[in-house]
Amino acid sequence: MIMPITFDKRRLKYVATINDESLSETTEPEYELQYIDIGNVDSYGTIHDIVSYKFANAPSRARRIVRDGDIVVSTVRTYLQAIAPIEKPPENLIVSTGFAVVRPDRQIFDARFCKYAVREKRFLWEVESRSTGVSYPAINASDLADIQIGFPDLETQRLIADYLDRETARIDALVAEKEKMLTLLEEKRSALISQAVTRGLDPDAPLKSSGLDWLGDIPVHWEVIRLKHLVSKIGSGITPKGGAESYQFEGIPFLRSQNIHFDGLRLDDIVFIDSDTHESMSNSKVLEGDVLINITGASIGRCYYIEEMQGEAKC
Q: What's the mean pLDDT in 42-71?
């Protein structure tokens, strides 16, 4: 017979502390730190691209000290759900003051259970509903600490955490296999496109040198023409003044490189800019019939043809 689990409710502030430690302003200028900003944490709770700084050169918001077992919860742009556990960090790991650092009371609150509890959909809904501000929604630490969570006894917390660790690891392994297959298919797709646009559809067509090392041979009846002579304009996307800090919850869509894929525009994490920023970026407006090409970063070469646009967008 399976016994039902009894969940009490506790406010977060009664089972964890928030923002216990910060770097002092008198920290040695040469002190080297590893820094996590809000943009380094994705909506799945994964931390990417930790950056090294000397304290003197670090962003002014690089102040919060984190320890093993802490959970960082973004308190700005809360709709992004940038929440991540801190596991076996280096001693010099520092996060932005845009995060609240939640430190579970280990006597009553299992850290692994906590990392799941603060990503539970009702908790996330509370975070967003208590956030204030339309263009830059934020929650203060005291409001975050006041949110209630389901709270079973410590042994049950550990059993639940064990189960979720096993199941999420299994799901992650399945996702990794799918991603491997998608990578192989993408390579095959790229090779197919390359063959068609550089050699044509007739594999037996006679060839000639293109005169370009990267292009190699082409069919004898083809010409080589510079791209600028075939298009009306080649523009370049720009980053808004203020960078990521200028992104908003609503307004004019702003396309970033991560939104551009061969199979379409992925807009699940689209950001927005206001009308003033929009006006300052008039040369990067996206129109129907444009081809968007990523020219930097890990996604270099990804491109997409804009057949139809609803409203305006920038990139």
A: 93
